[in-house]
Design goal:
Structural class of chain B: mainly alpha
Distance between the termini of chain B: 28 Å
Largest sheet of chain B: 2 strands, antiparallel
Strand content of chain B: under 5%
Distance between the termini of chain A: 30 Å
Largest interface: A-B, 30 and 30 residues
Oligomer: heterodimer
Radius of gyration of chain B: 22 Å
Strand order of the largest sheet of chain A: 1-2-3
Order of helices and strands of chain B: HHEEHHHHHHHHHHHHHHHHHH
Largest sheet of chain A: 3 strands, mixed
Number of strands of chain A: 3
Radius of gyration of chain A: 21 Å
Helix content of chain A: over 70%
Shape of chain A: globular
Helix content of chain B: over 70%
């Protein structure tokens, strides 16, 4: 079906951001313009590399780099398979935009220690790229742990007491998750199972007894569930919002949390596989936990007046959309889940960008203070309105497409109850997002301060991401082939999809 | 020449430990130079021995040409050659890096100081490569005596700590010697390989069992296995900086290696898990020690004391590996001997470098040092990350293999504790990193210590415009090249050892434990 070719490109995709980090560290604050340029430049190179691999991936030629033997019998290997390409492309495209935005934000907020910030940021991107392209579980764990480590200085960047406490919490949660994965990886190795990711899963053919399967399931799903912020493992995420907004935007709406849900895709589809999840009944555990999370988190989002915290709970909710999509074990739900990774990434990054732009201009953080802001920052808040429409799932935005597939997927496997969960959560999303837009545009400003738009380096990425959410909704294949990639993954994961669509419970 | 390589590993430091004090009286500068040259010779000899072992197999070197049972045999296999290489090369870097400390601490007798350092190294390498039970005792005491004397240099409080170290260390040595006596009575030989063969044939007699318990207790005291660790924190805290950077990474590790050697080369497999469950005792004490050491480390405010308790925890980790006893577990324990030597040397040298510049050692006083001593603190950060065990650093892999060994044996508690130990290590090390990188410098750091080392002369003699306004941390500069370069090399080694761990495991450690 697909062949692999030895190629340096997957490795280059990880190495480019490392290079940017080194250059940023060497350039230091003495030449801030040069230093800040590296990230954008590296982002563009990374996109080019990803696009070069993309056409081959779509044609079934998978680029693969074997780096070295990490443990007897296990290599560090990177592979640009369709699922990894979705995440990798998303991260690299959004990094270019976030790179531009971060410069405007950090300068606008007069943040300290910007060199450390840009270095750690680029290293985090490298780790996220590694997570995307990891070929086997150990390589995945390696980059997953590095991602926790490199994002720690970003969470604690403000160096306030709150930031330090949030940082400790962040490390405690993410390192524990990593340890669960390490335990599971070692266990698989001891059991003699080759933990190379395979569409459709490799565990089914390993012939383990049920206790071992469940043990591995708890360790693996729990390990990635921390970063996917599945309740009750979620509480690090709202705390981590003390980080500067570009971090919240790219890392805690895209790279880190999506590494978690992407890990859930890897675990669900590429380790366990549909038939095993079905036989074990593990899908139901995952489905109930994620359905609970997505409802509770939406309701909690209603209560929060702080804009970033509200967005954080919205993120928790939407991450569980994806987890639920994996748990439903059907080709349509999986397609929807993968598209939701892309759609939520581009939509939520817009919203965080907007929150940051408002903060830079007005130092306001709460929803209740945003009356009339739309008329003063029309492009910014207009983008927020577009993103809200997308988030709620109004056609033709991308999150409509993904939610449509998720809902259809629930019907396909005869779990209409989860369709209702999706719809209700969409309504609640309208409840916590539309009031912001209404306040911004329809109410009049209480004070008479006139704020203008933020720096163009912030406004331009905001507009671009909002338009991307629309454009990918209209044509999800253009220009990066997200839909085709997602359906390729779904086809490979469910070779018997026609039979399954009618059969299972 | 090549036949005599082992003699150089131990012989060179032993010989020059006598010559250096004599020359050092007349030419003070010569002491350091000769010492470095000698340690370098020992390192090269170790490296060449390792290369030869990998090529030709185990070297059995008969001292003076006398074959056992009359003579003493040195047994250089993959494992002992490699550990010897690690001990000598770490020592080489530490000796270079702490030269400025030694000048300050050794006072007007650098010759005696370096003589003792060489004596310590002779003892340590001797323990590693000897194949004779009594000879091991001799080297153990040589190393210990040198270590006591070195600790004493630290001043009044070090006297007390050193005295305690001496008493407990001597008891440990006596226990070991008694144990060897029992083995000798039971088998009639002191040669490890012969004793192994005779023990395999003989029934497990009461005498051998008692001997095993004595040996276990003696080496347990020397390697500071909980609850026999009480001497260690004081000794590490009060020893001079030039000494604890040397003792902490290698001294207890070598005692742990001796313990491993007993299980690898002397007592046949399964011998120690029957009526006298020494292996189980090691396992249980190790598990307790891992948790206890980490928790105790988290409660310390003096960074050296914190690192000392961390050592207690890491040594317990090695004990767990010995207790499990499978080839993979033993290899994991050996890998940790190596990894921990590099990691602890990095951390202690960084601490020494900080004390050299700013005279501070309380963890909460290190705030704001990160940007001012980037190389020192960078190495400290890398060493810390390796200790926590983030892949692909060295610390990850000893844990990785140990978890596998635990799973193999169905020892779930081992798996859980080993994984948990990562988090516990993160608690105390990230506490320091948080101070170093994320908190502002304290205006007036107070040490409340009564420590005799006054703030170092060179930072006090610096021209200071506003003495009361600028905190000592803000005046800090990066340590000199000869201090930071060995430190950075060691920090890099903690990553390199991780990346190349497969080579070490497959070519050195696993063959080493499987042959025996």
């Amino acid at each position: 079906m697909s062949e692999t070719t030895a190629s340096a490109l997957p490795f280059a995709a990880v190495l480019v951001p490392v290079g940017a980090a080194v250059l940023a560290a060497l350039t230091t604050g003495r030449w801030p313009n040069l230093r800040d340029m590296w990230a954008t430049l590296a982002g563009i190179v990374m996109v080019v590399i990803a696009v070069l691999m993309l056409t081959d991936t779509l044609d079934g030629r998978i680029h693969r780099t074997m780096l070295l033997e990490l443990s007897p019998g296990i290599d560090i290997a990177l592979r640009a398979d369709p699922a990894g390409m979705i995440f990798g492309l998303l991260v690299s495209v959004l990094w270019v935009l976030a790179g531009v935005y971060a410069v405007g934000y950090m300068r606008g907020e007069h943040e300290q220690k910007q060199t450390r910030f840009f270095t750690a940021f680029a290293l985090s991107i490298a780790a996220a790229a590694g997570v995307a392209l990891a070929e086997n579980l150990l390589t995945f764990v390696l980059f997953y742990e590095l991602l926790s480590l490199f994002t720690y200085p970003l969470v604690t960047h403000r160096e306030t007491e709150t930031a330090l406490v949030a940082g400790r919490k962040y490390l405690a949660y993410t390192l524990s998750g990593g340890l669960m994965l390490i335990g599971a990886t070692a266990w698989l190795h001891v059991l003699g199972v080759d933990a190379t990711f395979q569409a459709g899963g490799f565990l089914d053919s390993a012939g383990l007894d049920s206790a071992k399967q469940w043990g591995l399931f708890v360790l693996l799903a729990g390990g990635v569930g921390v970063k996917a912020a599945v309740m009750p493992l979620h509480s690090w995420l709202p705390s981590a919002m003390v980080a500067p907004t570009p971090v919240s935007a790219l890392l805690h709406a895209v790279a880190v949390v999506k590494a978690g849900v992407f890990g859930m895709v890897r675990v669900g589809v590429f380790v366990f596989g549909a038939s095993l999840l079905d036989d074990m009944g593990a899908w139901l555990v995952l489905a109930i936990m994620s359905a609970g999370t997505l409802l509770i988190a939406s309701i909690l989002a209603l209560r929060h007046d702080n804009l970033k915290r509200r967005l954080a709970y919205s993120t928790i909710s939407h991450l569980s959309y994806i987890v639920l999509g994996v748990a439903l074990i059907g080709p349509l739900a999986l397609t929807g889940a993968l598209l939701h990774i892309v759609g939520h990434g581009v939509t939520k990054i817009t919203m965080f960008f907007v929150a940051g732009a408002i903060h830079v201009r007005t130092h306001k953080e709460n929803v209740s203070e945003l009356d009339g802001i739309g008329r003063q920052m029309p492009v910014t808040m207009g983008s927020f309105a577009l993103a809200s429409l997308s988030m709620v799932g109004i056609p033709p935005f991308i999150l409509f497409t993904s939610k449509f597939y998720l809902g259809w997927g629930a019907v396909e496997v005869n779990q209409q109850i989860f369709l209702i969960v999706y719809l209700v959560s969409g309504l609640i999303a309208a409840g916590y997002l539309f009031p912001i837009v209404i306040r911004a545009f329809l109410r009049s400003s209480p004070d008479h301060t006139r704020y203008g738009e933020a720096d163009v380096r912030m406004v331009a990425p905001i507009a671009v991401t909002a338009l991307l959410a629309l454009a990918w909704g209209v044509a999800p294949d253009l220009p990066l082939g997200f839909f085709e990639l997602a359906s390729t993954v779904a086809d490979a994961a469910f070779p018997q999809s026609v039979a399954l669509a009618g059969g299972t419970p | 020449m090549e036949q005599q390589l082992p003699a150089f590993i131990v012989g060179a430091p032993l010989l020059f430990s006598v010559i250096v004090p004599i020359l050092g009286r007349k030419w003070r500068q010569s002491a350091f130079v000769i010492t470095v040259a000698t340690v370098a010779v020992s390192t090269v000899a170790s490296a060449l021995s390792l290369e030869r072992v990998l090529r030709e197999g185990t070297i059995r070197y008969y001292l003076g040409g006398w074959e056992p049972p009359v003579g003493i045999e040195w047994l250089i296999d993959e494992v002992s050659a490699f550990v010897s290489l690690v001990v000598t090369s770490v020592s080489l870097l530490v000796v270079i890096s702490t030269r400025r400390w030694a000048e300050r601490e050794a006072g007007d007798r650098p010759g005696v100081f370096y003589g003792l350092v060489l004596l310590l190294l002779a003892g340590l390498t001797g323990i590693v490569i000897t194949g004779d039970l009594f000879n091991l005792f001799v080297f153990l005491e040589i190393a210990s005596l040198a270590a006591y004397a070195l600790v004493f240099i630290g001043g009044r409080r070090a006297m007390l700590a050193g005295f305690r170290y001496l008493i407990i260390g001597s008891i440990g040595g006596a226990f070991y010697l008694l144990g060897v006596g029992f083995i000798y009575f039971a088998t009639g030989t002191l040669n490890m390989i012969e004793a192994r063969q005779l023990l395999e044939e003989a029934e497990s007699t009461r005498a051998v069992q008692v001997g095993a318990v004595f040996i276990f207790t003696g080496l347990g005291l020397k390697m500071a296995l909980v609850p026999m660790h009480l001497w260690l924190p004081d000794a590490y805290e009060h020893a001079p900086s030039s000494v604890n950077s040397l003792i902490a990474p290698v001294m207890t590790k070598v005692a742990a290696f001796a313990m491993l050697r007993m299980f690898l080369s002397v007592f046949p497999p399964g011998y120690l898990s029957g009526t006298v469950p020494v292996a189980d005792a090691l396992l249980v004490l190790g598990l307790i020690g891992i948790v206890f050491g980490s928790v105790a480390a988290a409660g310390q405010t003096d960074i050296r004391r914190m690192l000392a308790y961390s050592s207690v925890s890491q040594l317990a980790f090695i004990a767990v590996g010995i207790g499990l006893g499978t080839p993979l577990a033993l290899a994991a324990a050996l890998l940790h001997v190596v990894n921990h030597a590099a990691m602890k040397a990095t951390l202690f040298l960084a601490t020494a470098s900080v004390r050299f510049r700013v005279g501070l050692q309380r963890t909460h006083n290190l705030a704001g040092l990160g940007p001012r001593m980037p190389l020192t603190m960078g190495a400290f950060a890398v060493g810390s990350v390796a200790m926590v065990g983030i892949p692909p650093t060295a610390g990850f892999f000893s844990k990785w293999y140990m978890v596998q060994a635990g799973l193999d044996e169905g020892q779930w508690i081992v798996v859980a504790v080993v994984l948990l130990s990562s988090l516990l290590t993160a608690v105390y090390l990230f506490k320091v990193l948080e101070q170093v990188y994320l908190r502002p410098a304290k205006p007036e750091p107070s040490e409340h210590d009564g420590d005799e080392h006054s703030p170092p002369a060179d930072s006090a003699s610096q021209p200071v415009e506003q003495p009361a306004m600028r905190p000592v941390v803000e005046r800090a500069r990066e340590a000199p090249l000869d201090v930071w370069l060995p430190l950075v090399l060691l920090g890099a080694a903690t990553v390199v050892l991780g990346v190349i761990n497969v080579v070490i495991m497959e070519h050195v450690l696993l063959p080493g434990v499987e042959v025996s």
